[in-house]
Amino acid sequence: xxxxxxxxxxxxxxxxxxxxxxxxxxxxxxxxxxxxxxxxxxxxxxxxxxxxxxxxxxxxxxxxxxxxxxxxxxxxxxxxxxxxxxxxxxxxxxxxxxxxxxxxxxxxxxxxxxxxxxxxxxxxxxxxxxxxxxxxxxxxxxxxxxxxxxxxxxxxxxxxxxxxxxxxxxxxxxxxxxxxxxxxxxxxxxxxxxxxxxxxxxxxxxxxxxxxxxxxxxxxxxxxxxxxxxxxxxxxxxxxxxxxxxxxxxxxxxxxxxxxxxxxxxxxxxxx
Length: 272
Description:
272 residues; alpha/beta; 19% strand
């Protein structure tokens, strides 16, 4: 397995801690996260791909969640569920996250209503380069039932579009605060699990309203929807991730790993 130590994290500037006990959750995750520069979706370009694999995980493939937005996306997914995994209260998972190109992020992530060559090139890179690399080097499962895709904001738009475009690849979707109406693109297998989250304070309630519309479009697929009082920011997304990730992959009873904000704001429909 590839073990290239992280030299720098573009989205987290971390000072060396005095002791392991004083590390913040982000620092601990950064120390456990590895990355590799891969050929990017555009000619002559390279992109960082990060992955976190629990230090207590045994060898062999693990369920995998692919996240948009590089280390930031990885940290959102891992930070609140990590203690339960490390303590053995939840099964391990590998999280793989692809760095975004700031110049093209929105058009790479948000498919919209028309064909987009930039979106298609990025999606082809994701499926044809990132997935095979992660399966070889990060121990990511090759099984659809153990593979999910997620993101925040436009990254959530990408997760929805990716799972809809290739429902044969992904059985789980973590969509934190999608901001574009992608209902016309929905394709989903009956067993695909969806997590939709939205803060009522995001864009004066517009994001929560869109989330409710997407929930209707998902139909009778298994859905965990979280709507509560948070803003369009990392803190809110972290706080509705642990139970959601556990539910998506059946890593643990979600009630055993979720935090109070999830208990107050998350409801499951048609658990399958």
